[in-house]
Design brief:
Elements lengths: L1 H5 L7 H23 L8 H12 L11 H10 L5 H23 L3 H8 L2 H7 L5 H19 L5 H16 L5 H14 L6 H26 L3 H5 L7 H15 L13 H23 L4 H19 L15 H19 L4 H17 L4 H14 L7 E4 L6 H11 L5 E4 L10 E2 L1 H5 L11
């Protein structure tokens, strides 16, 4: 059964099959280790909003993100899980789905196994973030594109399936708008080909959905959304270009995807490896003939990254990193690993093996104890009678990361927590502060995350 599951061609050797099985098992274990050996279970401020949105649904208190991911959390809570553990199940399920779908459709199987084991993607699958859910949908979208380009899917059926996949992507993450745009652009450049109009029509249908979504959903629950989040000239170009360079050189570093915030010579090594890898990518993409499918993959990735950069001029987002760019870099990694494997064969597996080893070393050095911290918070909230219901956590500013970590940890036990910056709220019984929490419990911290 195992041999059947992981054999992507008749010529696959037993050793290659065993390597694939080993990598999948080790990657799965690493995903689990990544969030258990973390002081707060791999969550961030966005995770807090996702889990709260899921917890209070059908009440809508957040339109800054689509409902796809929060509703998926809600679905798994119906089976007895809380929102935090539901998010981890989705992350693990997303990884296994990618492998299963690639095997079932005989579509980039070895590449998905190689990519899934990269430390950056291990980190994504272990996160309580919507990127974990969108990656399988991106892969399905890429498969549909391949079917259309190779004319195995045609006509109205092709337009319907492609349009539905674009709509599904947008309902998980708003940046899917860039994928819609890239799809339409690729169609325009290939207008005379049989599949050109399919991409154009699907892109237009996706755009129509975005417009309807804005007026019928976002404006209904938050009519000031656009004016609240759109602001021209947020950041100078010099800053954005620096962040883009650092972002891309870490995103495409197959071993380490995070710079040391304290700086130092180690960052030059991380950036240097990423820059060399990007250079090799460009060389392989220009010197080797690309199929139409591969051209589309690179178009999606390139336009997605470019749009993510330019949107920063008038929409406030975090600096571009491995997580934000994952929906666009996946297609680039697929083409890259395919070209590498064509040249180096099984030696390509050493990249993923080294990435897993590096990831394990980093996770070990930066380890916290989430399970212990969760129990501490759970006991504290129980004693304070704050396990259920709305809970506020007071901070003076968003830059107070030590306080935000406590709020994030609390959200993994009681997701209905909201950060407040109003001093008057501290007089309320359901408002916690760093002092109120740490005077009664001790939280295991790590120095790296």
């Amino acid at each position: 059964m195992i041999k059947k599951l992981f054999s992507w061609s008749k010529n696959s050797s037993k050793s290659a099959i065993y390597v694939d099985v080993f990598l999948v098992v080790i990657t799965f274990i690493m995903i689990v280790v990544r969030f258990l050996w973390n002081e707060k279970g791999r969550v961030n401020p966005d995770s807090l909003r996702f889990m709260r949105t899921s917890k209070v649904f059908p009440e809508i208190d957040n339109t800054t993100t689509p409902l796809g991911y929060p509703l998926s959390l809600k679905f798994f809570t119906l089976f007895g899980l809380d929102e935090f553990w539901a998010s981890k199940l989705i992350g693990l399920g997303a990884y296994l789905f990618l492998v299963f779908f690639a095997w079932k459709k005989k579509f980039y199987l070895k590449e998905i196994i190689l990519i899934g084991g990269l430390f950056s993607f291990v980190s994504i699958f272990s996160y309580t973030m919507s990127e974990t859910l969108i990656l399988p949908f991106v892969f399905i979208f890429l498969y549909l594109v391949h079917q259309i380009i190779t004319e195995k899917l045609k006509g109205l059926k092709a337009i319907l399936y492609l349009s539905l996949s674009l709509v599904a992507l947008y309902n998980i993450r708003y940046p899917a708008l860039f994928i819609m745009f890239a799809t339409g652009v690729f169609g325009l450049f290939n207008y005379k080909k049989s599949y050109g109009r399919t991409f154009i029509y699907s892109g237009i249908i996706g755009l129509i959905f975005v417009i309807l979504y804005k007026f019928l959903f976002i404006d209904y629950f938050n009519e000031k959304y656009v004016e609240s989040f759109l602001e021209i000239g947020l950041h100078p170009t010099s800053k954005l270009l620096t962040e883009l360079f650092e972002g891309l050189t870490t995103v495409f570093n197959p071993f380490i995807h995070i710079l040391n915030p304290a700086g130092g010579i180690v960052n030059y090594g991380i950036i240097g490896i990423g820059l060399l890898n990007i250079t090799l990518m460009l060389f392989l993409f220009t010197k080797n003939k690309l199929t139409e499918t591969e051209k589309f993959f690179l178009t999606i990735g390139g336009i997605g990254i470019a749009c993510s950069f330019f949107i920063q001029y008038f929409y406030s987002v975090n600096p571009l990193d491995y997580r934000l760019l994952a929906p666009f870099t996946l297609s680039i990694w697929l083409v890259y690993f395919k070209k590498l494997y064509d040249i180096f064969g099984k030696l390509t597996y050493t990249i993923t093996a080294l990435s897993l080893l590096t990831g394990f070393a980093f996770t070990w050095l930066a380890r916290g104890n989430y399970l212990e911290n969760r129990q501490e918070i759970k006991t504290f909230l129980h004693d304070e009678d704050l396990e259920n219901g709305r809970l506020n956590f007071y901070m003076e500013s968003e830059e107070e990361l030590d306080k935000m970590r406590i709020a994030e940890l609390i959200s993994t036990v009681n997701p209905n927590v909201k950060v407040t910056f109003k001093p008057d709220d501290t007089l309320k019984n359901n408002t916690l502060t760093k002092y109120k929490v740490l005077r009664k419990i001790k939280i295991d911290k790590n120095q790296f995350q």
